[in-house]
Amino acid sequence: MALSPLATQTPGVYIDERNAFPSSVVEVATAVPAFIGYTPRASYEGKSYYNKPVKVTSFNEFKAYFMNETGSQYDPQYYFTKVDAEPEKGNSFHLNGDIYTAEPDPGTIYYLYNSIRLFYQNGGGPAYIVSVGPYGAPTASPVGAGEAIINPNVKLAELQKGLELLQKVDEVTIYVVPEATLMSTDDNSTLMASMLVQNGQMGTAVSLFDVVGGNAPDPIQYTEDIKTFRNSTGNNFLKYGVAYYPFLNTTVTSNSEIGYGNINGGDTSVLAPIVNPDAAPNPVAEQILKNIAEPPEGLTPSQLNQALMNSSKQYQQVMKILNEQVNVLPPSGAMAGIYTLVDNTKGVWNAPANVSPIGAVDLTLQINDNMQAGLNVDAVSGKSINAIRFFNGQGILVWGARTLDGNSLDWRYINVRRTVTMIEQSVKLASRLYVFAPNDANTWQTVKSMIENFLSNMWKQGALQGAVPADAFSVSIGLGSTMTGLDLLEGIMRVSVKIAVVRPAEFIHIEVEQQMAKS
């Protein structure tokens, strides 16, 4: 506090307070994902929130903005079709001795809603939601057996517009676009490249990617999907990208959320030969189908669906098949939740790996050591893809912690990239206080002490390696050290910060040898 002008004019005692301690650096939030995609609605209190980043802190807040107040939140359509022979690819099932395929109407498949549910199941917290539009019209026909699901309602231009909106939201640290895999390979490639470029330019966030084809990978030809993915990400700003494989079989959608209305566009005629076959007539199920076609007064669709479940084991099998299909989800939503959980409980400097995704009961592909070797290390592109694996006695675990920049010794690991980003942004925000301050030794010492105190606390928490702080970091600032006389004339203050970030023990080698017996 400066002395009053009266101090030199009026006799008396005056207090002059001086700051004894430098300003402090506050650690910025590290797990604030932004989800971009399509939602049932986007409005609150009569105001539209399409193409507006909305921060929510719980699933209840998400519901208030983006879910229908009544009725279904997600209405995927699957077509059960009787075929003469079992197809080589795709989903086929035996019902009453007949062969049926079960393929989705691509215009009705969306992932964002269920990915948000997975995010909060796995420890999610504050997040931004960018809804780029409502669900589009169905195509009224299924995809071909084994063909990729490409939703014509998921538009590259709309997702890119949502991505651009995040340029004004510095708080976001993770980008997630679950529905990116529902576009063509070329559109998905363009979007991923745009996300990485924006990550690199802003320096505040990483992007989580899902691999096209991970929803139904071929046990042998899955490597073609991996090759396509690597070819689609380009070579720019790979240190800001992270990929996970394969998709998860989850329990997010319960049996009560689906029914006969999700089969063949609500046309229940396909169910008649299944629930009431000629070889084993079921008059009760037949009557229920008639009631579905012409609902009696007082009976709701959920009641009719439950009645059909109770009367027909075949219908229970159909619903089981449908539920399993609907619950196949990309892993990015769950991983965003795991990032939040690990950051909040252990710190961002810990790798988000060796953790079980909650809500996942199986994987679309069982990966072994030999298969993961080709995912984790690629000699040609260097682009690492993190495997999610099943281990006997342990269940499903995230078994990888690498960025797409797998050949870089600096940025190979996710926790290193995200820890450095946190330190950069924390120091940057704290240093704004000294913009326009005198560029002299007093300011330099204050800034240096501020950063050293922050890094010392990071070291004590285990974010930096070294037996003593001097081994963990160093901060340099001053004329002749980091600045020249020309820098001073141009109003430039340069600070050099070196840090030794903790890296994960990805490969643990244990040497075992025999020794002779001793008395």
Cα end-to-end separation: 77 Å
For the biggest sheet, the summary is:
8 strands, mixed
The CATH topology label of the domain at 33-59 and 111-136 and 148-247 and 330-348 and 360-409 is: Rossmann fold
Using the alpha-carbon principal axes, give the shape.
Answer: elongated
* Overall pLDDT: 92
Determine the fraction of residues in helical runs and give it as a percent range.
Answer: 25-40%
In DSSP terms (H or I, runs of 4 or more residues), the helix count works out at 15
User: For this structure, what is the CATH class of the domain at 33-59 and 111-136 and 148-247 and 330-348 and 360-409?
Assistant: Alpha Beta
Strand order across the biggest sheet?
4-8-1-9-10-11-15-16
Name the quaternary structure: single chain
**Estimated structural class:** alpha/beta
Sequence stretches where pLDDT stays below 50 over 5 or more residues: none
Computed Rg: 29 Å
- Please name the CATH architecture of the domain at 33-59 and 111-136 and 148-247 and 330-348 and 360-409: 3-Layer(aba) Sandwich
Strand portion:
15-25%
Instruction: Kindly state the number of beta strands.
Output: 18
